[in-house]
Amino acid sequence: TMRLQAPQFQALFTPGLRSVAELFEKKNYELRIAGGAVRDLLSGVTPQDIDFATTATPAEMKEMFTAAGVRLINNKGEKHGTITARLHEQNFEITTLRIDVVTDGRHAEVEFTTDWHKDAERRDLTVNSMFLGLDGTLYDFFNGYEDLKNKKIRFVGKAAERIQEDYLRILRYFRFYGRIAEKPGDHEPNTLQAIKENAKGLAGISGERIWVELKKILLGNHVSHLVQLMYELDIAQYIGLPLNGNLEEFARVTKNIQNLSPKPMTVLTSLFKGKDDVTNLDLRLKISKEEKNLGLFLVKHRQELTKGPGPEPLRPYQDFLMDSREANTNSKIFELLKYQGEEELLKEMQEWTVPSFPVSGHDLRKMGVSSGKEIGTALQQLREEWKKSGYHMDKEELLSCLKKL
């Protein structure tokens, strides 16, 4: 058996975890780290959040914690077997081992078990099905550690069965592929076959759940390959993607944008041909208003708002920003520059501060322009002059310019 001694593992033993471990030990309940955190630790990564699994039932845990005066945080997880305890300013989410009794492709009814193998069996991918004892012992029933070392993504047991328990697992397969696999195209043929045969099940999954997974896929590796696969395996139509997505543009943009940390929507928009594609995505996935507006902005401006000729390539973007009356136009322009792969211009634009127009209506009244209408017109003309100067003219220059006008 393998025993993990990594510093990332040792670092987990906070006063809180030591107290939790002690309580379980005293009662002879087994407690292990489960799932994603084990995968991260074996990869040498510090896990963001840690799930624990135990042989104790929720009722037994509640009794044990209450007797020890430990505060329980009221979560809705209890019917799935999850209890959340708070010790030393830290939350511990601990779930009873379980077997799925009935599944409808979205939700499962569970019964509790003390069999670790049975619990591992109902997890989605081999790399997510491992447990780690608090002494560092690895419990790995499906060769997850081998798969992790070889960067292979495989379903636990039969792919079709795992997928039919929760169709969202199709997208989780893609997400972990983009996170772990070394190169595109390294899939087991029977896995792809099972995905294709069950793709339609995604139609019954809520848009919000799909969008969470899709965003992670869009920011992972091999994204062009994975999205192309979504079309080949008939998934695209069930998750709000356009039937005839622009895969050439998508491949081009995903290559240019790799190191520019784009927003997921920026990456996705390269698949779209027009604003209807954004609207349809929103109908299916209920994306946020900000995401929808970004998509519409990119579709509208990606072609004509491009860098200027000559010594001032940023000017078209700066002018657009200065003319815009909308909030956060600058962040949309940053995303547009990422989309266009303009790394240098993006840096310059992020460092550029929007100058404020130096003349006010008050200045014009001092010069004897009295009617509101004339002031409005004059200000507009001066703004144009100021813009032509590249926003360099100061108040004096602009006002002497007004005399000429």
UniProtKB/TrEMBL annotation:
CC cofactor: Mg(2+)
Gene Ontology molecular function terms on file: metal ion binding; nucleotide binding; nucleotidyltransferase activity; tRNA binding
Protein name: TRNT1 nucleotidyltransferase
InterPro entries membership: Bact_CCA-adding_enz_type3_sf, NT_sf, PolA_pol_head_dom, PolyA_RNA-bd
GO CC annotations, alphabetized: mitochondrion
Organism: Orthonyx spaldingii
Gene Ontology BP term (one): tRNA 3'-terminal CCA addition
Keyword list, A-Z: Magnesium, Metal-binding, Nucleotide-binding, Nucleotidyltransferase, RNA-binding, Transferase, tRNA processing
Xref: Pfam families: PolyA_pol (PF01743), PolyA_pol_RNAbd (PF12627)
UniProt family annotation: Belongs to the tRNA nucleotidyltransferase/poly(A) polymerase family.
tRNA nucleotidyltransferase/poly(A) polymerase RNA and SrmB- binding domain segment(s): 188-239
Annotated Poly A polymerase head domain residues: 31-154
